[in-house]
Amino acid sequence: MNTQNNLQKPTLVNVIAWMTLASGIVNLFWGIAASGTALASVIGIFCIPITILPTILGIFEIIYAAKLFSNPAQPVKPSTNIAVFEIACVVTGNIFSMAVGILSLVFYNDMVVKEYFARINGIAAPAVPAPMTEPASVPEPEPAPVLPEPPAPPAEEAPAEPEKPKKPRTRKVA
User: Fold this and answer.
1) In the predicted model, what is the mean pLDDT of the chain?
2) How many other β-carbons are positioned within 10 Å of the β-carbon of residue 93?
C-alpha cells in the first residue's frame, strides 16, 4: 500500500497553498497592469524590468501552489524563496503579496508543517523535544575557587634627594 496517498495535509499547508495561489494571480495582474502603465511614459519604459518581476513571481507562485495541491502529494520543499520575493513585492506597491509572504514564512516554521514536508520528501522528521513531566535535577553549584591573596606592597623607602626646582623659561620679545 502506498503511504503517499494516505498522507493527510495539515490545514496550514492548505492555507499556504491557497494564499500562494491567490498571491500568484494577484501578482500576474499586478505585473501586467504595472507594465502597461509604465509603457505609457518615456521614463516608465526604463522601469519595465522592475514591473515585469511580479508577473514572473506570479507564474512561479501558481506552479508551486499546484504542486502543493497535487494528489498524491509531490515531494516539494517549503519555498522560503518565494515567500521572501513576495515580501519584496512591496517595492512595486503590492501590499497583499507582502502579507502573504510574511504569513507563509510564519507557517513554514510550524512543527506540523515541518513534519509534513519532511514526510513527503522522505527525510527524517525534525526531533521534537519530549514534554517534561518532572523537573530536571539542578546540579549543585561548584564552590568558588580560592584565589591566593595578593602579595603585600613593599615597605616604602626614604625618598631620594629632591630635585632642583626648574627655573621658568622666559621668552625674549624681539
Assistant:
1) 82
2) 11
Does an H or E element contain 162, and which? none
Give SS3 for 127. Answer: coil
pLDDT tens readout for residues 30-56: 989 888 888 888 887 887 888 888 999
Q: How far apart are CA 115 and CA 71, in angstroms?
A: 18
CA angle, 36 then 41 then 45, to 5°:
70
Quick one: DSSP state of residue 158?
A: P
Neighbours of 39 (CB within 10 A): 13
- The sign one gets for the Cα dihedral 75, 78, 81, 86 is positive
Domain parsing of the chain, residue ranges? 11-120
> Rounded to an integer, what distance in angstroms lies between the CA atom of residue 24 and that of residue 78?
16
Do 23 and 94 touch, CB atoms closer than 8 A?
no
When pLDDT is cut at 50, 70 and 90, the band that residue 129 belongs to is low
> 94-105 pLDDT, tens per residue?
899 999 999 999
Closest CA to 98 of 37, 34, 27, 38: 27
DSSP characters over 12-77 = HHHHHHHHHHHHHHHHHHHHHHHHHHHTTSHHHHHTHHHHHHHHHHHHHHHHHHHHHH-SSPP---
Residue with cell 523535544: 129
